[in-house]
Amino acid sequence: MSLTVAASTELLSAGTVHELLLRVREKTPRVHTITNAVAQNFTANVLLALGAVPSMTIAEEEVAGFAGSADALLINLGTLDETRRAAIPLAIEAARAGGHPVSIDPVFVNRSPVRCAYATELLACGPDLVRLNAAEMEALFPGRAGVEELIAAGTVFAVTGEEDKIESRSGDFRLSNGHPLMARVTATGCAGGAVLAAFASVETDRALAAACGLSVFNIAGEIAAARACGPGTLVPELLDALYAMSLTDIEARLKAA
Ligand SMILES: Nc1ncnc2c1ncn2[C@@H]1O[C@H](COP(=O)(O)OP(=O)(O)O)[C@@H](O)[C@H]1O
Ligand SMILES: Cc1ncsc1CCOP(=O)(O)O
Ligand SMILES: [Mg+2]
């Protein structure tokens, strides 16, 4: 299913964000997520609160079956070990064969040249979506060298931080929801990437999917921050806010400009 909406900041309406959220809740997509050991539990809970379903096996003998039968695949490089290295190409091949969107989160490529080289190889396979922070973007594409080619080939980049930018060949979105407290809890970036993967499974315009998914996640972060006492209570509040997210919440808070 695809909305006939061009990717442009003015056209990201609360109604569109809500429509895609309803699609996720209706479809309950399974997101096969090869993610880091730090992020696994929070990511699984974020997907469930959203209305999606997580699966997370990394076993070489099982991963193709799980990824091929899922609705989307997310590869997160946060704890890139031998088991994950063996699983990743098998999972990507299976997801691709099944026609499912592939997302990559190249965590900490700015801290590890080995990981940066590995991520560069992965990106060459042309993932549908890449979610990362600005430091990771700069490590992969110093001075933006090489990024335009990937965008022209169809990969969508979601660069997060205080402000978020979605870059795609059909246009860009600038988003400014979220809360600084989100950066005081581990794996919010990783879990947000899983939300984007879930949205990519219900909308073929992946830039629009990323913009809607990130808006939902960051609006939940804002609602949670208003209720939380600090990072500890932000986590359960964020899960509750995702679960209860309404059109009214989105209309009241969406900041896309
Ligand atoms: N200062 C901030 N203000 C608002 N939202 C933020 C802020 N910092 C991070 N976020 C949000 O928190 C999530 C994690 O982003 P980020 O910290 O960039 O990822 P990572 O953890 O991968 O570095 C994203 O959804 C982002 O939009
Ligand atoms: C702390 C840590 N170490 C390896 S992965 C990871 C979590 C990173 O999460 P995020 O990229 O969402 O901040
Ligand atoms: Mg990250």
TrEMBL record:
Write down a Pfam family by its short name: HK
Q: Which UniProt keywords apply?
A: ATP-binding, Kinase, Magnesium, Metal-binding, Nucleotide-binding, Thiamine biosynthesis, Transferase
* Domain of life of the native organism: Bacteria
The family database entries (InterPro entries) matched by this protein are listed as: Hyethyz_kinase, Ribokinase-like
Q: What Enzyme Commission number(s) appear in the record?
A: 2.7.1.50
Write out the GO MF terms: ATP binding; hydroxyethylthiazole kinase activity; magnesium ion binding
* Name of the protein described by the UniProt record: Hydroxyethylthiazole kinase
Record lineage: Bacteria, Pseudomonadati, Pseudomonadota, Alphaproteobacteria, Hyphomicrobiales
UniProt gene name: thiM
